[in-house]
Amino acid sequence: MPQPDFDSAARDTLRLIGPDPQNWVPDRAGIDHNVVVVGGGHSGSTFAFALRRAGIGKVTVIDAAKDGPSSGIWLTFARMQKLRTPKSLAGPELGLPGLSFQSWYESRHGEAAYAEIDRIPRIDWAAYLDWYRSILNIPIRYGTRLVRIDPAPDHLRLHLEHAGGVSIERTRKLILANGFLGAGGPSIPDVIERGLPRQLYAHTSQPIDFGALRGKSVAVVGSAASAFDAAAVALESGASEVHLFARRHELASLPVIRIRGYPGAYDNYGALPDAIRWHQAIRFRQAGSTPPPDAIARAVKHRNFHLHLASPWTDARASGSQVVGVTPLGEFSFDFVIAGTGFTVDARQRPELGDFADDILLWRDRFTPPADEQDDGLGNYPYLGGGHEYLEKQPGRAPFLKDIHVFNPAAFVSYGLPVGDVPSFRRDIPGVVSRISRDLFLADLPAHETRINGSVDPDFDGEFYASSIWRGPHNVAAE
Ligand SMILES: Cc1cc2nc3c(=O)[nH]c(=O)nc-3n(C[C@H](O)[C@H](O)[C@H](O)COP(=O)(O)OP(=O)(O)OC[C@H]3O[C@@H](n4cnc5c(N)ncnc54)[C@H](O)[C@@H]3O)c2cc1C
Q: E strands, 298-368, where?
């Protein structure tokens, strides 16, 4: 029997769009790369394809993860069964239907099967991304971690840790597609981090041995999606009981970002005045991050799952092998605690940005919020430029910042979305690529001016039409 050809739509798409443009960026002596992309998850992989289609060559993608495939979070700390975002959103395919998740899924499972799924199963998303990298031949340099960015005139010297050593590679542009952890770090409440020995707690972004929680009582602090996912996995792994502690009096259920998903607001968000963007960020902060209903259902169907509302942990201490969590409504003891408390955005926490973190313009430097909209955490977000590039706090002190483009959740206040999520792709990946293209082009203007003023071979010569040239009426008479 002939094998089904799952990839024919993708191959057809690639045939129809034609070959990739030639690399138009002139080489510069001593420069290794035009662009380095940090992170080979779904964002970094899509950038690699988008830059290639823009004719920007000498691009390399690095990822600290030890082995491919499946870089990114999908087979590590993402524990939900389905993506949280709608299945219909445009994503890594960059407008080319034959490269979309839908096409990939339908070719393997049929149209009816795709119609039946309400959202994309997480495992399938990971498999699709592996396929995407493979069919588009996007190499990722695994086991390669950016540890320091060292600016030099006209380029960045990247210190890359690989196989136990550190080497330096030079690039003109850098894209940080390094996810939530690249924006800062895990946000762990002080009472847990300072009050408990390390073996008694974990953050949801860290590896957790759920098998070891069988028969154990588990507290989950936090009530957004990842907290519910961790609670569900603990329950499914046989925890004796799981208690989830929410600060709020009720679970966040208002998806305020959705209301501005229409094209006008989505496409033009970056052009909104600062006060409006800040207010939107505050509005999101106040409404809270909403767990999807199926994530809640996955936990609440267990009788040994208990939800504590209005119960922030105000203190925590170890008592023998147990953890005691203190809330306004009482004290509770557990064998283990999982902090499902999200992530911080703070450039000073990132080793690779450490040399110049204080030079980065932040929202707090740029905008003074009204008294009832103060928020220190949001003030820490970088105030990004039109190509998602860092700006300088003090003009002239760190001009190289314009060559670092931020494609991670630190772009939230500037761009209104957790950048790196699928919803940010359609607008922001082409936006960043077009800025990089413009910057590289203009930086080499003399070379391009020479190139575009260069000699051009004629398509034909005068002989081609000589016989039809009007030479007066006598010409016609003579015939
Ligand atoms: C639990 C969870 C569930 C989510 N679910 C959804 C969802 O359903 N839908 C959606 O649209 N979004 C979702 N998101 C948000 C977002 O899509 C994901 O965070 C997604 O993984 C972002 O992809 P990315 O490629 O930008 O970054 P990541 O997937 O985080 O990949 C970043 C990569 O960068 C590498 N890296 C980091 N630092 C360095 C360094 N210094 N040097 C080299 N490599 C480095 C990492 O190893 C990693 O592989 C979710 C986020 C989380 C945390």
A: 305-308, 315-319, 322-327, 330-334, 336-339, 343-345
Gyration radius from the chain CA atoms? 27
Q: What is the pLDDT of residues 360-389, one digit of tens each?
A: 999 999 999 999 999 999 999 999 999 999
CA-nearest of 37, 51, 147, 151 to 392 is 151
Instruction: Give DSSP secondary structure letters for 226-256.
Output: HHHHHHHHHHHTT-SEEEEE-SSSS-----G
User: How far is residue 204's CA from residue 202's CA, in Å, rounded to a whole number?
Assistant: 6
pTM over 0.70: yes
Ligand 1 mean position, distance from CA 209 (Å) = 21
How distant, in Å, are the alpha carbons of 131, 181, 205, 275, 373 from that of 281?
A: 35, 20, 23, 10, 10
11-16 LR contacts (CB < 8 Å, sep 24+): 11/98, 11/135, 12/98, 13/96, 13/97, 13/98, 13/99, 14/98, 14/135
**pLDDT above 90 for 326:** yes
- Which H/E stretch holds residue 267? helix 263-267
Count CA within 13 A, CB hemisphere, residue 218. 35
Q: Please state, for a pLDDT cut of 90, what percent of the chain lies above it.
A: 96
Q: Which atom of ligand 1 is nearest to the CA of 408?
A: 26
Do 242 and 220 touch, CB atoms closer than 8 A?
yes
Joined together, the tokens standing for residue 111 give 């149209």
- Looking at residue 306, its amino acid is H
Is the pLDDT assigned to residue 436 strictly greater than 90?
yes
> Does residue 421 have its Cβ closer than 6 Å to ligand 1?
yes
**pLDDT value for 357:** 98
What distance in Å separates the CA atoms of residue 224 and residue 342, rounded to the nearest whole number? 8
- Whether 39 lines ligand 1, by a CB cut-off of 6 Å, is yes
CA of 179 to the centre of ligand 1 (A): 4
Give the pair of three-digit tokens for residue 240: 């004796």
Tell me phi and psi for residue 9, to 5 degrees.
-65, -40
- pLDDT for the residue 62: 97
Characterise 389 by phi-psi region: left (phi > 0), alpha (psi -120 to 50), beta (else): beta
The encoded tokens of residue 445 equal 């203007």
Q: Which pLDDT value is given to residue 366?
A: 98
- The answer to whether the CB of 124 falls within 8 A of the CB of 105 is yes
Which pLDDT tens digit goes with each residue over 385-397? 999 999 999 999 9
> How many angstroms separate the alpha carbon of residue 72 from the centre of ligand 1?
5
